[in-house]
User: Which sequence fits this backbone?
């Protein structure tokens, strides 16, 4: 049993050591795709209903800012941040708040059905915009927890005495739902629900005093809402990610030499060695060299060439790792086409 385990571990170690890992920075297309011709956009708030609100929870009645008012302040903070961020990211020439006084807003705390295209087109026409970023839904929900602890306080005679302190912790959950209406293409380009939480703590000599001591809840909700609005604005921009790639460093002494060149950042020199090894008589070495040439091509930004090399590594030489890498490259090529379209101005 010991001998079998030792052999397995040796094989596992040897297999792992046949490759090294590198990291690449890859630009991904924006999550929300709008045609480059879309330059003027509007920001709409559908969350503030003019209808009578439902009864407030007992907890919300305790706070200085009631539920609907807190929702209104949070939604406005998120929308302000969204508009500011969209204006600053240079993707659009004009970003404006849009209003539709004739539009029936959504009920308190519900994610509504999309706007009809008649309504979306009318809003766009009246405000001279080509697309609408709409906050469709915004809601806060609070849960309160109580605990007690004994603290020592100085009494009238200067002697410390134990006092029971009440602690109130309020967990406020925030949810926001967004849609992007492309009025010209008549497409909903995005539908996105996001959320976060805010913790507020107060203390006092009894539960009521502890709740009254809660401070900063409104400001914290507004701050988190602003962060949510800024984050949503980023969905219209391409973004960078880090990806890992394995490349072969074992096969013969030439692979060892190429490994050292790669470790010093001399990828061009490593590529020269791998290119020569693609003609090796040993199909295992030639397959690994073809695979590594795919790595070099991806580093150089030539995805189509990388696909050709990696396809040959799998089809002609049976290099099993190449099939997964081929699919990664094909997905990258498709994403790159979307990215180029988004960046065409």
Assistant:
């Amino acid at each position: 049993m010991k001998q079998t385990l030792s052999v397995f571990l040796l094989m596992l170690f040897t297999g792992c050591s046949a490759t090294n890992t590198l990291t690449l920075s890859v630009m991904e297309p924006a999550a929300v795709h709008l045609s480059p011709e879309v330059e003027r956009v509007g920001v709409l708030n559908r969350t503030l209903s003019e209808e009578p609100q439902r009864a407030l929870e007992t907890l919300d009645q305790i706070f200085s800012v009631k539920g609907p008012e807190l929702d209104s302040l949070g939604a406005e903070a998120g929308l302000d941040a969204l508009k500011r961020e969209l204006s600053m990211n240079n993707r659009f020439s004009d970003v404006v708040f849009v209003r539709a006084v004739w539009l029936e807003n959504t009920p308190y705390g519900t994610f509504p059905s999309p706007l009809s295209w008649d309504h979306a087109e009318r809003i766009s026409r009246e405000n001279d915009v080509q697309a609408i970023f709409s906050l469709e839904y915004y809601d806060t929900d609070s849960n309160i927890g109580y605990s007690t602890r004994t603290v020592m306080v100085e009494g009238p005679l200067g002697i410390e005495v134990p006092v029971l302190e009440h602690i109130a912790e309020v967990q406020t959950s925030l949810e926001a739902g967004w849609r992007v209406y492309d009025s010209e293409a008549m497409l909903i380009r995005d539908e996105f629900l996001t959320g976060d939480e805010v913790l507020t703590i107060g203390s006092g000599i009894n539960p009521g005093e502890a709740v009254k001591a809660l401070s900063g809840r409104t400001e914290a909700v507004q701050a988190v809402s602003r962060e949510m609005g800024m984050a949503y604005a980023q969905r219209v921009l391409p973004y960078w990610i880090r990806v890992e790639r394995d490349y072969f460093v074992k096969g013969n002494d030439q692979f060892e030499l190429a490994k050292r060149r790669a470790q010093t950042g001399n990828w061009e020199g490593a590529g020269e060695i791998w290119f020569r090894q693609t003609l090796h008589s040993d199909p295992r070495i030639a397959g690994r060299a073809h695979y590594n040439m795919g790595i070099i091509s991806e580093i150089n930004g030539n995805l189509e060439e990388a696909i050709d090399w990696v396809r040959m590594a799998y089809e002609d030489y049976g290099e099993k790792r190449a099939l997964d890498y081929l699919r990664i490259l094909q997905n990258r090529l498709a994403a790159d086409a979307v990215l180029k379209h988004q960046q065409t101005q």
